[in-house]
Structure formats: C-alpha cells, structure tokens
Amino acid sequence: MIELKKLTKVYGQTHALEKLDLTIKEGEIFGFLGHNGAGKSTTIKSLVSVIEPTAGEIVIDGQLLTEHRQEIKQKIGYVPDTPDLFLQLSANEYWDLLGAAYELAPAAKKERLEQLVDLFELTAHQDETIGSFSHGMRQKVIVIGALLSDPEIWILDEPMQGLDPQAAHDLKQLMKEHAQKGKTVIFSTHDLATAQQLCDELAILKKGQLIYNGTLHDLMAKYPDESLEDIYLGLAGRQAQSEAGERNE
Ligand SMILES: Nc1ncnc2c1ncn2[C@@H]1O[C@H](COP(=O)(O)OP(=O)(O)OP(=O)(O)O)[C@@H](O)[C@H]1O
C-alpha cells in the first residue's frame, strides 16, 4: 500500500501540491487525471524520489520513504514524462545501465529483456542510438527499461504517449496483468478513454488539490447519464474558471 500524507510541494510562488492525502492499494490500477500543471508529475516524481516534497510524508508498504529510500527505489519501475533521455546511448547500453543499477542477474535480465524487446518490436533497433529513434520508439525504450527489473510497483507518467496503437494495447495488457497479480500500477494520463479502460481507482487533481478520489465505478454511477469526458470536464473545469462556477464534489 502507498500512502501520501499531506504531501506538499511548493516551487517559489507555485503551490504544485497542497496537502495531498491519498491511499493507493495493491491489485488495482490507479490513475491520475488533471489538466496541464495540475500536479500529476509532481506527485509521481515525489513517489519515485526524483524531487523532494516541501512537506508531508510518503509511506510505502509501511516504510517511510525518507528512511528507506534505496530499498523502496529498488521496488519501483518508473516511466518519466519525457522519453528524451540518454540520447547518445544505444538502447542496449541504456538497458545495461539499468540492469546494473538494479543489480539484475544477467540471465534473468536477458530473458526479460528479450520478451519486452520482442513485444514492443524493437529487436532490430537495439544497437542503434536512442537519439536516432522516433518519439514513440524512445518511449518504448523507456517503458522496457522501467519494466526490466520486474518491479513490484509500476509508476508510469503518461506511459502511452507516442506509442502506436499496438504498443499502447500491449502496455495496457501488461498493466492489467500486473494489477491482477496483486501488484501496484499507478499511471497518469490525459486520455480519458484510456483512463476508462484501465482505472479501478482514480484521483483528479486541480491546481495541486484533490478534487476527486474514488473508484471509476462510483464516479460513473454518480453521473449516470454523462460520459467520463463530461464528468471530468465538469469537475476539473477551465483553468481560469472561478471556483464558484464549477461543479462541487
Ligand atoms: N521544476 C519546476 N520549477 C518550478 N515550477 C514547477 C517545476 N515543476 C513543476 N512546476 C510547476 O508545478 C505545477 C505542477 O506541475 P506538474 O508538472 O506536476 O503538472 P502536471 O499535472 O504533471 O502537468 P502536465 O499534464 O502538463 O504534465 C505547475 O504549475 C508547474 O509549472
């Protein structure tokens, strides 16, 4: 279980996250939704220790993240919100780097890598530099890297971004299978159809605050005649819209 307790991040004058309280259970796919700048990546980066929250706590499987950072990091596979990393390396060199960082046994790494590379159809390109890849191919490299250690907890920031429909379908399938095994899958998306396909539970953020947290089923049941798009837009509103005019949860 992952618990966020009053998680707060302030950048200068910007309150990117404001006392966020959330519990994310195993065995479910948990989705973050929210307009640009709502705080999704800030939450995710805090979870994976890329940034340090200004205040609040993150507890993973009963352990405080700040006290067990290395141990917890080994359990997590992370897809960042940009695939434009390590562009000078070949895909294989990048995966070797991750294999070393996660101290993977060579045989296990080789087997898992072959499966993932085959699934995402990158076999012919493994020794080419990431910088020569298309956006979607870079995304595949990052996704394969995140899943290479067969981590318990998947934290994926807009993972379907740039993936072709086949690769997106395959990744969604992997996410479902991982959750079905009782593991944790967290992702963010702007694609409401994807959210509707995948999410058991979701959090909608707006300007660093939680405006909905609950199951997709309960949310849809609450507004039975509306599409998820209508419900989401009703809740999240326009960025500049006054609070008074928005639907209240
Ligand atoms: N490094 C930073 N320095 C200053 N402000 C930042 C930084 N990173 C994020 N912010 C601000 O924090 C707020 C939340 O940003 P965040 O990236 O978490 O949003 P998001 O929901 O992931 O948005 P998007 O959907 O556009 O990726 C925004 O106002 C953003 O400008």
Features:
249 residues, alpha/beta, Rossmann fold, 4-stranded antiparallel β-sheet, 10 strands, binds adenosine-5'-triphosphate
CATH topology of the largest domain: Rossmann fold
Per CATH, the superfamily of the largest domain is P-loop containing nucleotide triphosphate hydrolases
**SSE arrangement, N to C:** EEEHEEHEHHHEHEHEEHH
Rg from alpha-carbon coordinates: 18 Å
Estimate the mean pLDDT confidence: 93
Molecular shape:
globular
Total number of helices: 9
Give me the secondary-structure category: alpha/beta
What summary fits the major beta sheet? 6 strands, mixed
- Terminal-residue CA separation: 25 Å
Count of beta strands:
10
> Could you name the ranges where pLDDT drops below 50 across 5 or more consecutive residues?
242-246
CATH architecture of the largest domain: 3-Layer(aba) Sandwich
Which compounds are bound in this model? Answer: adenosine-5'-triphosphate
Helix content: 25-40%
Q: Numbering strands along the chain, what is their spatial order in the largest sheet?
A: 6-7-8-3-9-10
Structural features, described:
The chain is of the alpha/beta class. It folds into two domains: 1-75 and 153-163 and 182-249, P-loop containing nucleotide triphosphate hydrolases (Rossmann fold, 3-Layer(aba) Sandwich); 82-151, no CATH class. Helix content is 36%, strand content 25%. It contains nine helices and ten strands. The chain has helices spanning 40-47, 69-73, 91-101, 106-119, 135-147, 165-180, 192-198, 216-222, 228-236, and strands spanning 2-11, 14-24, 29-34, 55-60, 63-64, 76-79, 153-157, 184-188, 201-206, 209-215. It has a six-stranded mixed sheet, sandwiched between helices. The protein has a four-stranded antiparallel sheet with strand order 2-1-4-5, covered by helices on one side. The longest helix has 16 residues, at 165-180. It is globular. 37% of the residues are buried. The site of adenosine-5'-triphosphate has 12 residues, from strand 2 and helix 1. Keywords: ATP-binding, Nucleotide-binding, Transport. Residues 2-232 form the ABC transporter domain.
